[in-house]
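Reviewers of the previous submission asked for a worked example of the structure-prediction workflow described in the proposal, so we include one complete record here. The input consisted solely of the amino acid sequence. No template or homolog information was supplied to the procedure at any stage.
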Amino acid sequence: MSNLKKFFAALVIALTGISCAQASEFAGPYAGIKVGENWSGASGVVNKSSHATFFPGLTAGYGFDVKQFVIGAEVFADFHHGSTTYKDGGIDLKFGMPFNTIMPYARLGMTGTWPNARLHGGVGVEYKFAKQFSVAAEWTADSSSHDGTKRRNDSMTVGVHYYF
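From that input alone, the workflow returned the following structure tokens.
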């Protein structure tokens, strides 16, 4: 819950313009790699107890400056073969609020591989440690109800982005 309070405090600071960096630090095209831990489970017709899977992933996106915000889209592929949904890929809208070289953000979109398309969302923070490089840490989640089985995925990832 304290992370949610920090997120809203950052939002208030961003909206009032106090120590906001130019959004252009995080604008433009980028591509990246990530690693993470996925926790998933299934109940119903298929029962699989909650378990963890280590996985690699890929990202690519583009961010646009909108006043002091960065709004963009990101495509992703998560190869968590041991999860109840095998592997996921999709596209999310990304909304960030840069503060100098740090940008907290939220994401919401769709993931659409096996067993079905479903809503995908999460929150994260990105740190620009060089002109063309950043590191990002995020939590994402999705759930589905398909053919009598309810599935849930939660993932924590850390990745590196290269800005073109």
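The chain is about 10% helix and 70% strand. We consider this example representative of the routine output the project will generate in years two and three.
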